[in-house]
Design brief:
Blueprint lengths: L1 H25 L16 E3 L5 E3 H10 L25 H4 L6 H11 L16 E5 L4 E6 L7 E2 L1 H14 L19 E3 L4 E3 L1 H7 L11 E2 L21 E3 L4 E3 L1 H5 L8 E3 H21 L1 H70 L6 H9 L5 H23 L17 H8 L11 E2 L5 E2 L3 E6 L9 E8 L12 E6 L3 E4 L7 E10 L2 E2 L6 E4 L10 E6 L5 E3 L5 E4 L3 H8 L10 E5 L7 E8 L6 E7 H7 L20 H5 L7 E7 L2 E4 L19 E4 L4 E6 L4 E6 L5 E6 L6 E7 L3 E5 L10 E2 L6 E2 L1
Antiparallel strand pairs: 1-2, 1-5, 3-4, 6-7, 6-8, 9-10, 9-11, 12-14, 13-14, 14-17, 15-16, 15-18, 18-19, 18-20, 21-24, 22-23, 23-34, 24-33, 25-30, 25-34, 26-27, 26-33, 27-28, 28-29, 30-31, 31-32, 35-36
Helix pairs in contact: 10-11
Length: about 750
C-alpha cells in the first residue's frame, strides 16, 4: 500500500515537472533579444518598456553613429557569461574600446562632471531605434547610462536555462585545466569557484573572507537596482515619469511637482493588478481555448477563401485572355482580307502595264494593225484599238498605284484599354463616411448628412444606424436601429423622442461589401414638441420698418430716419418706438419648443413670448424708450410694488445686442415691450448660432436655451392665464430667422384674436 502511494506521489511530481518544463519551453520566445535573437544578457529597459541586451544596444548605437554613449564601462561584465565564447556572435567579432578611452568619450560627449558648466553646450539627444516597436526612442543625453537593468528578466532567463539545461554545467574559472565543476559564486569577485578555489581566493582573516557565496551562475547581478544617475539604491517610483528614482532624484527639480510614491506602494499596486489580470486569464481558460478554436477555424476558412479567390481571379483573367485572343483573330482576318484585295488590284495593274512594252501585248498588236493596207479593214480594226490605246496613254500620263501599300488605318489605339488593365485591381469597400456636422441637426426630426472621402471607392447605398444613449443599458451587445439601403448622402429620421440624446453612424456598401462605420455623432433632440408657426405681418407696430420674407420665416428691421434723428438728438430727447412682430400661432396647453437665429450685427433684439391680450394692447402705442421723460424705475419702494412682485409677468424676453446676450437678475422676469430689464449690472454671454425657447404652459415657465448644445441660458416665470404667442421686438436694425422644420411644412393656421383661419 505504501509503495503504491509512493509511486502515485512520484508520478504526480513527474507530471508537475513536465508541465513546468513545457511551460518554460513555451515562453522561450519571451526571453529572446529582438536584436541578436538569443537569450537576454544583461537586458536594459528602454523608455518604450521593451528590453534589449546591453551589448546589442551598444552595437546598435555604434551603427547609428553614436560613439561613447554605451553607458558606464565598468558595467561590462567579466563573468564567464560575457566571454567571447558565450556572448553574442556579433559582439565577439567587434573590438571593444579600452575603458580609459571610453571614459574620455563619455565625459566629452555628454553628462555633467566637475569642471563643466551646465548649459555651456547644447546636450545631444540620443535616439535609439527600438527593434520591437519599430520606433525611435529618446534616451536623453546620457544614452544607455540612464537606463535600468531588468534584473527580474535576468532571473527568469537564468531559471529557464537551469530548467532546460542550456549550456551544461558551470565550470570553475580559477582552476587549472581541466577545470572542475563550479559549486559557488561570488558577486563581489564576479566569478565562479569550486570548493578548493573559493577557499584559496577567500582566505580566512582577510576582507574577501566576508564575501557571501552564492550559487554558480553565468550572469552576476547587483544586489538591487541602483539609480543610473547617482548610483544610489532606488526607493521611490515617479508616477508622472513612470520611472524608479532614488532619494537624490526625488529632491531634484527634474521631478518637482511630480506624483512620487514609495517603491513598496508601487510594488503592491502593480503586483495586485498583475495578479488580478493573471487570475482572470487563468480563470477563463475555456474562453481562451474557445477563441483559439475560432481563430483556427478562421485560419482554415481563410485558406479555403483565399484559394477560391485565386481560382476566381485566374478564371476572370483567362476570360480576358480568351476575349483578347478572339479579338486578335478577328482583327488579323480583317487585315488579311484587305491585303489580298490590294494585292489583286496591284497585280492587275502590273499586267496592264506589261502589255504596253514594245513587242508585247497591246503595243505589238497595234504595230501589226498598222501594217494593214486595206483601208476599210484598217478603219474597222483600228477604231476599237484606238480607244484602248487612248486609255493606256491616259493611264501613263496620270499614273498612280491601284491600291495603297500603307496599313495605317489598321493601327489600334489601346491606350484606354492599357490604362484600364493597368488599373485593374480588386474591388474595395467604401471608406468610412465623414459626417457633415454643419448640416446635421435635430429639430422636429433628425437630419443626417455625410460624404465620402475624396479617394474612396463609390458606394451603391448606405446603412444608417442610430440609438438612444440616455436609456438604461440592456444586457448583451448594444442594439442599434437600422435603416437599410439609403440612397444619396442624407437621411431623415422621423419622430424622435423629445429630450433625448441620439448617437448616429453610417457606412457605405458596394459589390465588395460593407465599409467601415463613420465616427459617431451625438445629437440632442428638443426638450419639447416643436411648434411650427409663421411670422404674422398683420400684427405689429411700424410695419413699414419691418421687412418679412415671402415664406414668412424671416424678418428684418430697417430703422431708417427715426434712428438717425435719435442719434442726432440723443442729449436733447427724441421719440423712438419698438417694432414688434408676432407668430401666427398661440399656445394654450402643453409644452412647446421653437428655435431661431439672430443676426449678430443686430443692434437690440428681444426674443420671447407674451400673453396675446397684452401684446395686442401694446400695439396701440409703444412707449418712448429714449426720451428723458421715460423712467423705467422711479426708485419708489411702495407697498403696492412689494405686493405685486410675486405675480408672474405677462412677457418673457431675452435681450440680445451686438452679438451678446444680457443675463441679469430679473432680466426676463420683468422684461416686456417697455424695456424694463431690471438692473443693468447683468452679465453677458456670447450669442450662440441658434436660440431655443421652451414654453411649459401648465407650469408657467419659459426656458431659453442654446439650440446647438441645449445648454440652459435662462429660465423665468410667465403669466399663462390666456393664449401665449411667440414675439420678437426690434430697437434699431436687426434680423431674425426662424429655424426651418426638417419634415413637411405644416399648414398655416392663425389663432390670434380668438379665431382660427386656414390660408
Amino acid at each position: 500500500m505504501a509503495e503504491g502511494e509512493d509511486m502515485q506521489t512520484f508520478t504526480s511530481i513527474m507530471d508537475a515537472l513536465v508541465r513546468i518544463s513545457t511551460s518554460m519551453k513555451n515562453m522561450e520566445k519571451e526571453l529572446l533579444c529582438p536584436v541578436c535573437q538569443e537569450m537576454y544578457k544583461q537586458p536594459l529597459v528602454l523608455p518604450c518598456t521593451h528590453n534589449v541586451c546591453q551589448a546589442c544596444a551598444r552595437e546598435v548605437l555604434g551603427q547609428q553613429g553614436y560613439i561613447g554613449h554605451g553607458g558606464d564601462p565598468s558595467s561590462e561584465p567579466t563573468s564567464p557569461a560575457s566571454t567571447p565564447s558565450t556572448r553574442s556572435p556579433r559582439l565577439s567579432r567587434r573590438t571593444l574600446p579600452k575603458p580609459d578611452r571610453l571614459d574620455r568619450l563619455l565625459k566629452s560627449g555628454f553628462g555633467t562632471y566637475p569642471g563643466r558648466k551646465r548649459g555651456a553646450l547644447h546636450p545631444q539627444v540620443i535616439m535609439f531605434p527600438c527593434p520591437a516597436c519599430q520606433g525611435d526612442v529618446e534616451l536623453g543625453e546620457r544614452g544607455l547610462a540612464g537606463l535600468f537593468r531588468n534584473l527580474t528578466l535576468e532571473r527568469v532567463v537564468e531559471r529557464y536555462r537551469q530548467s532546460v539545461s542550456v549550456g551544461g554545467a558551470i565550470l570553475c574559472q580559477l582552476c587549472k585545466p581541466p577545470p572542475l565543476e563550479a559549486t559557488k559564486g561570488c558577486t563581489e569577485c564576479r566569478a565562479t569557484f569550486c570548493n578548493e578555489c573559493f577557499k584559496l581566493f577567500h582566505p580566512w582573516g582577510t576582507q574577501k573572507a566576508q564575501h557571501e557565496p552564492t550559487l554558480p551562475t553565468l550572469s552576476f547581478r547587483p544586489k538591487g537596482l541602483m539609480c543610473p544617475d547617482h548610483k544610489e539604491e532606488v526607493t521611490h517610483y515617479c508616477k508622472t515619469c513612470q520611472r524608479l528614482v532614488c532619494q537624490l532624484c526625488r529632491v531634484r527639480r527634474t521631478h518637482s511637482g511630480h506624483k512620487i510614491t514609495p517603491v513598496l506602494s508601487a510594488y503592491q499596486a502593480l503586483k495586485d493588478k498583475l495578479t488580478k489580470s493573471l487570475t482572470y486569464i487563468l480563470g477563463n481558460q475555456d474562453t481562451v481555448q474557445t477563441q483559439i478554436c475560432e481563430l483556427e477555424e478562421a485560419v482554415r476558412h481563410t485558406e479555403v477563401s483565399g484559394q477560391q479567390a485565386k481560382e476566381e481571379v485566374s478564371q476572370l483573367v483567362r476570360g480576358l485572355g480568351a476575349v483578347l485572343e478572339e479579338k486578335r483573330a478577328s482583327l488579323l482576318q480583317a487585315i488579311e482580307e484587305c491585303q489580298q484585295e490590294r494585292l489583286a488590284r496591284l497585280s492587275a495593274q502590273i499586267q496592264e502595264h506589261r502589255s504596253l512594252l514594245d513587242g508585247s501585248g497591246l503595243v505589238g498588236y497595234a504595230q501589226e494593225v498598222l501594217k494593214e493596207t486595206d483601208q476599210p479593214c484598217f478603219v474597222q480594226a483600228a477604231k476599237q484599238l484606238h480607244n484602248r490605246i487612248a486609255r493606256a496613254t491616259e493611264a501613263l500620263q496620270t499614273f498612280r498605284p491601284a491600291a495603297s501599300s500603307s496599313f495605317r488605318h489598321c493601327q489600334l489605339d489601346v491606350g484606354r484599354e492599357m490604362k484600364l488593365l493597368t488599373e485593374l485591381n480588386f474591388l474595395r469597400v467604401p471608406e468610412a463616411p465623414v459626417i457633415d456636422t454643419q448640416r446635421t441637426f435635430a429639430y422636429d426630426q433628425i437630419f443626417l448628412c455625410w460624404r465620402l472621402p475624396p479617394h474612396s471607392p463609390p458606394a451603391w447605398h448606405y446603412t444608417v444606424e442610430f440609438r438612444r444613449t440616455d436609456v438604461p443599458a440592456q444586457p448583451g451587445p448594444t442594439r442599434w436601429q437600422r435603416r437599410e439601403e439609403v440612397r444619396g448622402t442624407s437621411a431623415l429620421l422621423e419622430n424622435p423622442d423629445t429630450g433625448s440624446v441620439y448617437v448616429l453612424r453610417v457606412r457605405g456598401c458596394n459589390k465588395a461589401g460593407y465599409g467601415e462605420y463613420s465616427e459617431d455623432v451625438h445629437l440632442h433632440t428638443p426638450p419639447a414638441p416643436v411648434l411650427h408657426f409663421f411670422l404674422d405681418s398683420r400684427w405689429g407696430t411700424s410695419r413699414e420698418r419691418l421687412a418679412i420674407s415671402k415664406d414668412q420665416r424671416a424678418v428684418r428691421s430697417v430703422p431708417g430716419l427715426p434712428l438717425l434723428l435719435a442719434a442726432d438728438r440723443l442729449l436733447t430727447g427724441c421719440h423712438l418706438s419698438v417694432d414688434v412682430v408676432l407668430g401666427d400661432v398661440a399656445v394654450t396647453q402643453g409644452r412647446s419648443y421653437w428655435a431661431c437665429a439672430v443676426d449678430p450685427a443686430s443692434y437690440l433684439v428681444k426674443v420671447g413670448v407674451g400673453l396675446e391680450s397684452k401684446l395686442q394692447e401694446s400695439f396701440q402705442g409703444a412707449p418712448d424708450v429714449i426720451s428723458p421723460r421715460y423712467d423705467p424705475d422711479s426708485g419708489h419702494d411702495s407697498g403696492a410694488e412689494d405686493a405685486t412682485v410675486e405675480a408672474s409677468p405677462p412677457f418673457a424676453f431675452l435681450t440680445i445686442g451686438m452679438g451678446k446676450i444680457l443675463l441679469g437678475s430679473g432680466a426676463s422676469s420683468n422684461a416686456g415691450l417697455t424695456g424694463r430689464d431690471g438692473p443693468t449690472a447683468g452679465c453677458t454671454v456670447p450669442l450662440p448660432p441658434r436660440l431655443g425657447i421652451c414654453l411649459d404652459y401648465e407650469r408657467g415657465r419659459v426656458s431659453f436655451l442654446d439650440a446647438v448644445s441645449f445648454r440652459g441660458l435662462l429660465e423665468c416665470p410667465l403669466d399663462c392665464s390666456g393664449p401665449v404667442c411667440p414675439a420678437f421686438c426690434f430697437i434699431g436694425g436687426g434680423a431674425v430667422q426662424l429655424q426651418e422644420p426638417v419634415g413637411t411644412k405644416p399648414e398655416r393656421k392663425v389663432t390670434i384674436g380668438g379665431f382660427a383661419k386656414l390660408d
